[in-house]
């Protein structure tokens, strides 16, 4: 049978529970604007019934505040993380693409491509009418130089953006490591509290905020499992295993966390010809294995950085290994057969049979039309006999496939346009060519002698009449001297060295660079010319007379001739130079590419922002603090507290009557 004073105990339990509920509600109201705070609730249960020897058998003993827990739904957390990763991906990509769009946008009509390109050909038209006027010639060479400087500056801007993204990648990696460490520390603190029977709600909120931030940088998933007592599997210890995965790879394993590190690519690990030196790769610190920063999923901001920094639109070289040596790999059936489209670096990396190799140079063989038939890479590492055999018939790729039109793509497109344009321009300027025994163009007319020079097919010219006919079609400057290349490529190491790119590329073996120990190597192809190093020849820049407007056969001292200028003017829009169009359509093609990608990013950013708003509202409906709801709860718990207090007052009167007034 229960005690006479048992009712006071029951009322006291209600008083204490209501007090706990009021305190928790006050805590919720206080944190209504706290970022990441989850609404807390007091979980109450009826106290264990007391057995009594009466007809009703048991009697209630009041209420217990079992725990104070946070309201949170993992389903909405996962939806938020997935959407946050997608939103971060498109926001970051849009930010970069708008910068690239601004680079190509002709906001300044005085320095835009169309204006400069048109000015150059307008100056050329003036030159056609008065080819002997040095002032007119100087005006043309100045506009031509302005065109090359436009591409130099544009390429430099893209380099700077690539460098900036590279630095942001390092910052992102530092942020990931910092958050991983904090999550591991919080896991330990949470388990210490909850193993003692409590609930670490505030610490759990801090951990959730970190995972939320992490989800914008990379794809995130998290799992939490309760720890069972090893001696009694049905008994829970209060601790949990908490694991965080990024891009499918484990980052945090309860108290332990893995860290990432950035490693600069070596010079022979570059992927694209235009890449700056020192681009970062991300690896796991524990074993040095490469971290997959571009997963098939959303990928977050980090994936966007890599796609814009390394995106080549999958236009890197692919081929099939058909021959190997102790330190060479030869591929045939290359996906790139036009020399002007070559975009791999002089030194770089190869992927064959899921293994990386690095090369220090390469050479390629051409057919009678100058198309590439096979390419040989000269490796930094040796190949065993077994490796040589295993590589045959395997697919090879140079660099890395990144299916996005990023900075390398736009650099390559500029290179392709300039190579086609400069090659066509120089061919008209130079006219017919003859070569020495090594296939190098003869540039001095005094060295052009019968039986000592060869035609483009490699046949020795043994007929004086034929030789005279060839000479008559060679371009000459105002002084009657043979014309060299007007557009040249500056050497990367020695800027005073100008590459004329006049080697005979038909049915030949061409190397990616020269060799000081072997001057017979052909390497002067338009592969050497890029948007970074294109310029006009110093001789033409210093002396406006060093520009051909006519050929040797039409040249007469003191007589102006300009029939070559007529052919040059066709390059403005008539001659197909870029994507099936003329040179004047270059910017339209490029701007169409960048605008489409920018608009796509903008649309997806808006869509995922709207989705984020919806998910956040759903998430907050569960875990957020609603001021109106908390006000109602406060009134409800206050009333319960008052009623419990009234019960105590009633029992006090009963006990007063029973003890002090009964029997008196």
Automatic annotation (TrEMBL):
Annotated ranges, domain Flagellar basal body rod protein N-terminal: 9-37
Lineage: Bacteria, Bacillati, Bacillota, Clostridia, Lachnospirales
Official protein name in the record: Flagellar hook-associated protein 1
Species annotation: Pseudobutyrivibrio xylanivorans
PROSITE patterns, sorted: FLAGELLA_BB_ROD (PS00588)
Annotated compartments: Bacterial flagellum; Secreted
SUPFAM superfamilies found in the cross-reference section: Phase 1 flagellin
Family note: Belongs to the flagella basal body rod proteins family.
Single GO term (MF): structural molecule activity
Main location: other
Signal peptide: none
InterPro entries: Flag_bb_rod_N, Flagellar_basal_body_rod_CS, FlgK, FlgK_helical
A GO BP annotation: bacterial-type flagellum assembly
Record flagged with keyword Amino-acid biosynthesis: no
Pfam families, alphabetized: Flg_bb_rod, FlgK_D1
Keywords: Bacterial flagellum, Cell projection, Cilium, Flagellum, Secreted
């Amino acid at each position: 049978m229960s005690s006479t004073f048992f009712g006071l105990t029951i009322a006291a339990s209600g008083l204490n529970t209501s007090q706990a509920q009021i305190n928790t509600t006050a805590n919720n109201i206080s944190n209504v604007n706290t970022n990441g705070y989850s609404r807390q609730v007091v979980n109450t249960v009826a106290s264990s019934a007391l057995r009594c020897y009466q007809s009703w058998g048991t009697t209630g003993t009041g209420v217990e505040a079992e725990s104070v827990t946070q309201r949170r739904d993992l389903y909405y957390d996962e939806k938020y993380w997935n959407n946050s990763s997608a939103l971060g991906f498109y926001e970051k990509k849009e930010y970069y693409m708008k910068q690239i769009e601004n680079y190509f946008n002709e906001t300044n009509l005085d320095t835009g491509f169309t204006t400069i390109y048109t000015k150059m050909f307008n100056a050329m038209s003036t030159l056609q009418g008065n080819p002997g006027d040095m002032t007119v010639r100087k005006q043309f060479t100045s506009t031509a130089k302005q065109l090359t400087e436009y591409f130099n500056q544009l390429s430099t801007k893209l380099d700077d953006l690539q460098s900036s993204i590279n630095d942001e990648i390092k910052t992102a990696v530092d942020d990931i490591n910092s958050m991983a460490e904090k999550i591991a520390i919080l896991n330990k603190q949470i388990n210490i509290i909850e193993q003692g029977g409590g609930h670490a709600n505030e610490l759990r909120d801090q951990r959730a905020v970190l995972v939320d931030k992490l989800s914008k940088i990379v794809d995130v998933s998290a799992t939490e499992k309760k720890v069972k007592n090893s001696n009694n599997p049905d008994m829970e210890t209060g601790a949990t295993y908490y694991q965080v995965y990024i891009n499918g790879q484990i980052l945090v394993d309860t108290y332990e966390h893995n860290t990432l590190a950035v490693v600069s690519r070596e010079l022979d690990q570059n992927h694209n010809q235009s890449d700056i030196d020192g681009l970062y790769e991300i690896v796991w610190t524990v074993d040095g294995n490469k971290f997959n920063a571009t997963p098939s999923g959303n990928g977050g901001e980090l994936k966007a950085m890599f796609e814009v920094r390394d995106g080549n639109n999958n236009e890197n070289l692919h081929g099939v290994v058909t021959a190997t040596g102790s330190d060479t790999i030869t591929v045939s059936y290359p996906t790139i057969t036009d020399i002007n489209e070559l975009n791999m670096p002089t030194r770089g990396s190869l992927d064959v049979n899921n293994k990386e190799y690095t090369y220090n140079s390469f050479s390629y063989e051409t057919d009678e039309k100058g198309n590439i038939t096979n390419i040989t890479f000269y490796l930094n590492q040796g190949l065993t006999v077994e490796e040589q055999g295993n590589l045959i018939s395997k697919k090879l790729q140079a660099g890395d496939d990144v299916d996005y039109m990023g900075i390398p793509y736009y650099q390559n497109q500029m290179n392709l346009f300039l190579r086609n344009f400069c090659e066509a321009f120089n061919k008209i300027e130079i006219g017919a060519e003859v070569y020495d025994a090594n296939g190098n163009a003869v540039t001095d007319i005094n060295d052009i002698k019968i039986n000592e020079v060869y035609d483009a097919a490699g046949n020795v010219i043994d007929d004086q009449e034929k030789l005279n006919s060839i000479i008559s079609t060679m371009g000459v400057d105002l002084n009657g001297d043979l014309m060299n290349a007007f557009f040249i490529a500056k050497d990367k190491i020695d800027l005073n060295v100008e590459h004329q790119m006049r080697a005979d590329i038909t049915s030949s073996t061409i190397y990616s660079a020269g060799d000081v120990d072997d001057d017979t190597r052909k390497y002067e192809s338009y592969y050497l010319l890029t948007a970074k190093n294109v310029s006009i020849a110093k001789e033409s820049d210093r002396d406006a007379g060093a520009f051909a407007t006519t050929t040797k056969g039409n040249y007469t001292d003191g007589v102006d001739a300009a029939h070559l200028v007529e052919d040059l003017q066709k390059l403005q829009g008539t001659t197909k130079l870029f994507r099936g169009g003329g040179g004047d359509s270059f910017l339209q093609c490029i701007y169409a590419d960048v605008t489409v990608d920018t608009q796509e990013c903008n649309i997806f950013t808006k869509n995922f922002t709207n989705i984020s708003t919806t998910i956040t509202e759903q998430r907050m409906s569960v875990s957020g603090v609603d001021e109106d709801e908390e006000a109602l709860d406060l009134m409800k718990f206050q009333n319960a507290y008052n009623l419990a207090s009234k019960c105590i007052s009633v029992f006090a009167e009963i006990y007063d009557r029973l003890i002090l007034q009964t029997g008196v």
